[in-house]
Design a protein that fits this description.
Blueprint lengths: L5 H13 L3 H18 L3 H21 L8 H15 L15 H32 L6 H11 L1
Helix pairs in contact: 1-4, 2-3, 2-4, 2-6, 3-5, 4-5
């Protein structure tokens, strides 16, 4: 996926570095969850929230080695989108009302479009495996997002 954006290219390079360290990957995912909880009420973000949550679960499953059926480029794109999302200085500054998250949402939407098939495969795997493994049928990541939505 090419965006032509220097900020996106910097995020991609950072993502490749982050993916080499599971702890850094966990931290960037946690940062994304925290930011998502702060912007959950924006209508732009609400439209992509479900895919965003699936991406977070897929990355967590990947770094915990539960789900490894992901092409390297897909995981890099996913982390790149998250890095772009949590980076404060991107194309449109996030503190600008109504416009601040527009570029973040645009990048996330483009990435979701690009990796949609892999996200669908992950969700199918998750529905088969995670529900069987958890007595309540809910994963820790889903609990994080329920907390975000209730908070």
């Amino acid at each position: 996926m090419k965006t032509g954006s220097k900020a996106f290219e910097r995020a991609r390079k950072k993502a490749e570095t982050i993916l080499k360290d599971p702890e850094k990957t966990r931290k960037i995912v946690d940062s994304a969850i925290n930011k998502a909880s702060a912007v959950k009420t924006t209508s732009q973000f609400q439209e992509i929230s479900e895919k965003f949550q699936a991406l977070i679960r897929m990355i967590r499953s990947y770094i915990s080695k539960e789900y490894r059926e992901i092409p390297w480029q897909t995981i890099v794109l996913g982390i790149t989108a998250i890095v772009y999302f949590v980076t404060p200085f991107d194309a449109i500054f996030d503190f600008i009302p109504l416009l601040g998250f527009a570029d973040d949402v645009a990048i996330l939407t483009a990435v979701f479009s690009s990796i949609n098939h892999e996200l669908d495969k992950f969700i199918e795997w998750e529905n088969t495996n995670v529900a069987e493994a958890s007595p309540e049928g809910i994963s820790a990541v889903e609990a994080d997002f329920e907390e975000i939505q209730e908070g």
